């Protein structure tokens, strides 16, 4: 049975049980501040479990792309070393929102596994929650009794809280769960050891494949449990593990989920992968196997994240994606001998393999390939740089143990992998101070945790029920009541209060647009709202204090000035998107945006730097639409399919409902939930301020409109007036500037000629000062030259013989510089190295530097240290 058949049979089965089949949500979460990535099948349904929204069906089934590489659920370091952990995986799931419960969930799970997939019953074990007296939660007798009618009692296992009580997080919906485990061992192994004893003991062939969670409690901030108003079912079955069981394999990587990717790696590297059935592989082969598993697993996670709109970067979710890819690159570099980019070649295989069910990987194939290729090339350059830096660390090490702190600096600053550091050191006969590295690592993690630590209290509900509505498209003020409040204490922001209103004109951050600011005004006080965000379908208004009377009536007032500026930038973004597609081509797609009152930022797919002409054409296009005074045509609650059919642009990586909001200005039409101007004339003017690269095939434009453009033009006018004054008010400013440039060029040539004469004169006088020490011609001297002159002088003196060791010091413009020249013969035969010399002497001038073994320089900030540096130089030749 192919993996495509496995997926289809699951969805068809639950469709036959009255479930609505929904597509996978994006792997990257953009509107949930509590999660970076979808890390479980239930993540996209949190608002339903919390009662903050109503699902379109009480029964839903899907397969969800999941990523577990950060926070509580972090499998990254296990990936590659075993046969069943992954960064990205598919979670097959069926869901009941207040509809069926344990009886149906358990019976359908058993029916699907044993009658449809035909897994032998004697290979299955199930677990049931044993209860927890401390929390007054009894044994899940109902689940036990249901299973007792389906399976022998000796195959039912009681599980503890760790294994059989599932929680969304430290707070929120939770409940007992019933897992299903499959024993994939041979008959001989089963006869020797019972599979029951191996359940939940990390045995690679006795693995959990399905978890049925029965959500019936809510975990409060104080740790206590309360009953949910409705009972829900949340199930998840690991697709890759299920394929392993159904295809008769003992490793996920031996299934057709991974074999096409593995075969491509074998073709590229010329190395062979051995399946899990091949026992007693050599140590070298095991390293190859691990590296190939790392590569084929990680490319899936990275490719789907990029396709869903998350580019690798140095912060947040982008940093996680970059870290996953770099782990794959370094395993290839170290164990597969790949010194050139190659992982990008796997994207075509992945698109061909999964594009039918996940069309985003097919449509974004070229972009994903380009981004991964550029990331590979960049990190391979980093590895080369790191190898040189590690060589310097080794050279400076006294003894045979390299400082863990130094190794951590390489890891933290340059991204050089610690295991690669340890491997290279062993090859050179050195040891790594692992304890020192771990101490530095833990200190950094502690700092990071402290900086991001957040304590969230339970909601205090003032008005029960899901009564909140958003009125911000039509109103900037509204009469409101507070429905719930809670306190949030974080190291970053201090104590803040989240306030939910029965209706609100405040737009919550989303779709690239920042959240509104404003006030809540009652008869007695005014509360400042400093931000607005959305979480689990609730609009949260952030304030530094609560009203004295939270039950009072308020007027919610949006800061109209900030709202107007943001809306002008947002509408300009739509017009610019249209302009880019018109001028550059329809390959242009939005890949990210930021809209705030100050400026707009727009990331888009394009293969080359935009020319000045193209940028001007985009500006002219947008400003023409502004001059046309196009009215806003807004269509709310239009069916998604109809909107797309009528030409509305839908963005990859965004989660759209069945009904959407379409925004149209002239020929520009996009699906968008943001705030816009009523007429393009309100934008006033559009000006691009920068264009550059974000990643391979991704460009970024930053632009301004309205008041920011006025300020921009005023700044340019002020600068021009200051230039005129500095030039003594010439009639033709441009002519005066050109004249000054010509004069400067002439003077520079004269100075260069004078400097050459000065170097020649100095050369003649310094020859007499050269001393012979241990057969080496030695000179350490401060000279009245600029750094370039010192370099010329060093090479001039270097031409005199084959055994010169020279250190020149300069203090041009009070900036100390050391220049070291060592004859190549001395480098070869005396083991002298100019780079090491300037690094050591640079300490005296409070600086550092480097270069080649025969020529290097070091800059610093302590002119007074020059004399000490020159006096110390002689020790290198004694």
Automatic annotation (TrEMBL):
**Matching Pfam families:** DHHA1, tRNA-synt_2c, tRNA_SAD
Alanyl-transfer RNA synthetases family profile domain: which residues? 1-715
The record's free-text note on cofactor binding? Binds 1 zinc ion per subunit.
Into which EC class is this enzyme placed? ligase
Question: Which InterPro entries would you find in this protein's record?
Answer: aa-tRNA-synth_II/BPL/LPL, Ala-tRNA-lgiase_IIc, Ala-tRNA-ligase_IIc_anticod-bd, Ala-tRNA-synth_IIc_core, Ala-tRNA-synth_IIc_N, Ala-tRNA_ligase, Ala_tRNA_ligase_euk/bac, DHHA1_dom
Q: Which residues cross the membrane?
A: none
Where it mainly occurs, coarsely classed, is cytoplasm
Q: Does the keyword Nucleus apply?
A: no
Known role: Catalyzes the attachment of alanine to tRNA(Ala) in a two-step reaction: alanine is first activated by ATP to form Ala-AMP and then transferred to the acceptor end of tRNA(Ala). Also edits incorrectly charged Ser-tRNA(Ala) and Gly-tRNA(Ala) via its editing domain.
Q: Which family does it belong to?
A: Belongs to the class-II aminoacyl-tRNA synthetase family.
Task: Name it.
Answer: Alanine--tRNA ligase
Q: Which organism is it from?
A: Flavobacterium fructosi
């Amino acid at each position: 049975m192919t993996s495509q058949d496995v997926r289809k049979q699951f969805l068809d089965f639950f469709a036959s049980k009255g479930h609505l089949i929904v597509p996978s949500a994006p792997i990257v979460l953009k509107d949930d501040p509590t999660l970076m990535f979808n890390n479980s099948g239930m993540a996209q349904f949190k608002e339903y479990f919390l009662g903050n929204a109503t699902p379109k069906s009480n029964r839903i089934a899907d397969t969800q792309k999941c990523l577990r590489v950060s926070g509580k659920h972090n499998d990254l370091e296990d990936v590659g070393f075993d046969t069943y952990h992954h960064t990205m995986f598919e979670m097959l799931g069926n869901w009941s929102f207040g509809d069926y419960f344990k009886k149906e969930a358990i019976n359908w799970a058993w029916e699907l596994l044993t009658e449809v997939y035909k897994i032998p019953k004697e290979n299955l074990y199930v677990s049931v929650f044993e209860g927890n007296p401390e929390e007054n939660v009894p044994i899940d007798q109902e689940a036990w009794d249901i299973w007792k009618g389906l399976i022998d009692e000796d195959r039912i296992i009681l599980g503890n809280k760790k294994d059989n009580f599932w929680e969304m997080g430290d707070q929120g919906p939770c409940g007992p769960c019933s897992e299903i485990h499959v024993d994939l061992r041979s008959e001989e192994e089963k006869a020797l050891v019972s599979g029951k004893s191996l359940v939940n003991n990390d045995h690679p062939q006795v693995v959990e494949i399905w978890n049925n969670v029965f959500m019936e409690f809510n975990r409060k901030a104080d740790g206590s449990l309360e009953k949910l108003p409705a009972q829900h079912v949340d199930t998840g079955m690991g697709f890759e593990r299920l394929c392993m069981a159904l295809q008769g394999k003992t490793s996920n990587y031996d299934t057709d989920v991974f074999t096409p990717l593995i075969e491509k790696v074998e073709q590229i590297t010329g190395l062979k992968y051995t399946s899990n059935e091949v026992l007693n592989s050599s140590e070298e082969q095991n390293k190859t196997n691990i590296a190939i598993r790392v590569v084929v697993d990680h490319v899936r996670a990275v490719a789907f994240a990029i396709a869903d709109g998350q580019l690798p970067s140095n912060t947040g979710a982008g940093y996680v994606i970059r870290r996953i890819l770099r782990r794959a690159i370094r395993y290839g570099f170290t164990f597969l001998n790949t010194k050139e980019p190659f992982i990008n070649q796997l994207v075509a295989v992945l698109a061909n393999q999964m594009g039918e069910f996940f069309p985003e990987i097919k449509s974004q194939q070229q972009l994903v390939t380009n981004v991964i290729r550029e990331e590979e090339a960049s990190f391979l350059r980093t590895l080369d740089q790191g190898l040189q830096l590690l060589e310097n660390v080794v050279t400076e090490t006294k003894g045979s143990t390299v400082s863990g702190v130094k190794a951590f600096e390489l890891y933290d600053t340059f991204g050089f992998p610690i295991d690669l550091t340890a491997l290279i050191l062993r090859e050179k006969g050195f040891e790594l101070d692992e304890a020192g590295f771990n101490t530095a690592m833990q200190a950094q993690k502690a700092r990071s945790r402290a900086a991001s630590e957040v304590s969230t209290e339970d909601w205090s509900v003032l008005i029960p029920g899901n009564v909140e509505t958003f009125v911000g498209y039509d109103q900037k003020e509204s009469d409101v009541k507070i429905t719930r409040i809670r306190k949030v204490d974080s190291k970053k922001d201090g104590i803040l209060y989240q306030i939910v209103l029965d209706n609100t004109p405040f737009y919550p951050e989303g779709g690239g647009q920042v959240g509104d600011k404003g006030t809540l005004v009652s008869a007695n006080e005014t509360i400042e709202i400093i931000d607005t965000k959305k979480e689990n379908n609730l609009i949260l208004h952030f304030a530094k204090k609560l009203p004295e009377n939270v039950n009072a009536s308020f007027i919610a007032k949006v800061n109209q000035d900030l709202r107007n500026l943001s809306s002008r930038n947002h509408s300009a973004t739509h017009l610019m998107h249209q302009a880019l597609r018109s001028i550059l081509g329809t390959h242009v797609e939005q890949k990210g945006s930021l809209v705030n009152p100050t400026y707009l930022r727009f990331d888009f797919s394009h293969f080359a730097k935009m020319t000045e002409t193209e940028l001007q054409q985009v500006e002219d296009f947008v400003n023409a639409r502004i001059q046309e005074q196009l009215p806003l045509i807004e269509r709310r609650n239009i069916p998604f399919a109809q909107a797309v059919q009528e030409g509305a642009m839908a963005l990859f990586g965004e989660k759209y409902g069945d009904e959407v909001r379409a925004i149209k200005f002239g020929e520009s039409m996009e699906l968008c939930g943001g705030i816009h101007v009523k007429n393009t004339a309100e934008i006033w003017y559009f000006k691009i301020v920068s264009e550059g690269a974000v990643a391979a095939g991704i460009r970024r434009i930053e632009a301004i409109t309205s008041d920011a453009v006025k300020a921009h033009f005023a700044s340019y006018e002020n600068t021009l007036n200051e230039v005129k004054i500095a030039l003594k008010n010439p009639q033709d400013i441009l002519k005066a500037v050109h004249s000054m440039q010509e004069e400067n060029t002439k003077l520079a040539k004269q100075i260069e000629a004078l400097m050459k004469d000065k170097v020649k004169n100095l050369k003649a006088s310094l020859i007499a000062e050269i001393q012979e020490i241990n057969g080496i011609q030695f000179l350490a001297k401060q000279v009245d030259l600029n750094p370039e002159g010192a370099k010329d002088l060093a090479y001039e003196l270097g031409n005199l013989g084959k055994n010169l060791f020279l250190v020149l010091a300069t203090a041009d413009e009070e900036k100390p510089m050391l220049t070291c020249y060592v004859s190549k013969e001395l480098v070869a035969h005396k083991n002298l190295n100019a780079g090491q010399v300037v690094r050591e002497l640079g300490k005296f001038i409070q600086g550092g530097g480097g270069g080649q073994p025969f020529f290097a320089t070091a800059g610093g900030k302590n002119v007074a240290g020059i004399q000490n540096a020159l006096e110390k130089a002689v020790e290198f030749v004694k």
